[in-house]
Design a protein that fits this description.
Length: 224
Amino acid sequence: MPDIQIMPSILAADFGHLAAGCKRAEDAGADQVHVDVMDGVFVPNISFGPEAVKVSSAAVSIPQNVHLMVIEPQHYIKTFADAGADTIQIHIESRCDVEAVLAEIRSLGKRPAITVNPETPVESIFQCLENRWVDEVLIMSVHPGFGGQKYIAAVEEKVATVRRMADWVDIAIDGGIDDQTVTRAAAVGCNLFVAGSYLYKQDDMAAAVADFRKQAAAAYCSAL
Ligand code: DX5
Ligand code: ZN
C-alpha cells in the first residue's frame, strides 16, 4: 500500500495569519501543506502566488505541495521552486508543453505532478504515466477555483483507472474531501488527500487528520 498522506489546503486558512495557518496544519500531524495558486484566468478566482509558498515553507518543515491553477505555468516553475515548492502540480488543461514543463520541474529537483479537471477525460494524462513524467496525479473532485464545494463522485472512475495503470504513482484527490468522502476516494485508489474547509473548520484538526489517516488506510486496504 502506498503512503497515506493528508494535505490541508491553506486556501481555507485565515489569510491574515497565514503562517499560523500553515503551522496549525503541521502541528495537527499533516504530511504536506497544499498551496492553491490561482491566476484569475485559468480559474475564476485569484488566491495567492509565490510569496505564500515562501511564508508557508518558512513556517513549517513539512513539504509544500503547490497546485498551479494558472493558464501558462511554464513562466513560473523556477519562481515556485525557489520559493520552496517540493511538489509542483500543473494542469493538463493549461496552455503549455506539458512534457517540457514536467521535465523542468524534475530538473529543478522537485516532484512533478499532473492535475486533471472533472470534465477532462483521464486519457489525456495517460502519456504522463506511460512515460513516467510524473510522480503524482491530482484528480480534481470539484471544479477548481473555490473551496467549500460538493465532491463530484463521478471522478472516482478516473482514480480507479489511474490506479490500475500505475501502482507506483501517488494519486491525490482535491475538492469536497470530508470524513465521508475520504473513504470513498481511498477505496478506489487515492493515497493523498487534500482538504481545506473541512479540516480548517475543526476545533481539533489533529483528531480530524488522524481520523482521515485511519479511515483512508482501512478503506484502501479493503479495496486491494
Ligand atoms: C479548489 C482547490 C482546492 C480547495 C479544496 O480549486 O484546488 O485545493 O482548497 O477545498 P475544499 O476542501 O474546501 O473543497
Ligand atoms: Zn488544490
